[in-house]
Amino acid sequence: LLADLDYDFSFKNNTINFSIPRLKFDVEYLIDSKNKQDSFLQIKSASNFLFPGFSNIYLRTNVSATKEKVNFNNIKLTSSTYSGIGNIEFDLQPHFFIKTKLIFGRTNLSSISTLDLANFFSNDLFEIASKFNSQFNIEFKNVLLDQNYFDDLNVDVRFDSGDIILNSVEFISKQNYLQLTGRIFEEDKDKLMFFNTKFRTSQLKKLCNRSCNSQALQDQYSMTAQGTLNIKKAKITAIGIHRGKLPQFAGAEPLKQALINHEKIIMVTAHYLDEVIDNGKSITSISHNVNYEKN
User: Fold this and answer.
1) What is the rounded distance in angstroms from the CA atom of residue 90 to the CA atom of residue 94?
2) What does the alpha-carbon distance between residue 293 and residue 295 come to, in Å, rounded to a whole number?
3) Buried/exposed 138-151: b ≥16 CB within 10 Å, e otherwise
4) What is the pLDDT of residue 212?
């Protein structure tokens, strides 16, 4: 990421200074001459660094080091979009590996442009993943999104030899929950993501006011889906499993709807997902006869 960039380096009074003028990136490392196990690091950067919205950075941390690892402890970080605390561990032996655990406070993710995010996920993310193996555990508290359906965002992601493993990406609120897991990798110049999702809500009526063809009968709703996304071509094929016949019993509690309607057959339907809930083309279904006779 830093190739072909001019930089300045100096060491004076137990302090290492490193800067990249073009990026307006500065590092100051103060070595504790009395106790080299506990030193001090300060980083400043005006330019965007690594992730969209990560600019105007100020990072301060204690540093401890051994032959096997280097630890950034008690990190305090501020930037134009993200501010938080955490720790970073650099394992030097037997193989270089980075473990990052950060907690960010109120974060305005809606301030990041869709174009910047698209460029990051289609290009920069793969370049970063190819540079080093690492594990990221990041919590975003009180996030601000274009639609305020979620309060928190938890990210558990691993870089493994250029592949991006989504152990768990969770959008969370009291009313709504969305989880994404899977793996992203490059193959034949395509960038593919194989994923699984889980979604549940207790406010389906409110959500359907904006995105459904018909009015929801109940607020409770849950679904699971899996699919493949070609990030480079930005085309998605995703499949959902609906516990009812489509399109007749779209929405929440399809089994209950069918029984109230005295249907003789109940169904489970696999269907393609699109922007409208339960509106995608049906793929296949499994049916089961219903016996309404009393014993």
Assistant:
1) 11
2) 7
3) bbbeebeeeeebbb
4) 64
pLDDT single digits (tens) 43-74: 877 777 677 888 888 888 988 888 888 888 99
pTM listed for this prediction: 0.70
Query: Residue 39: what pLDDT?
Result: 77
CB 57 within 8 A of CB 45: yes
Give the model confidence (pLDDT) of 231-290 as tens digits.
Answer: 777 544 566 778 788 888 887 778 888 888 888 888 888 877 765 677 778 888 878 788
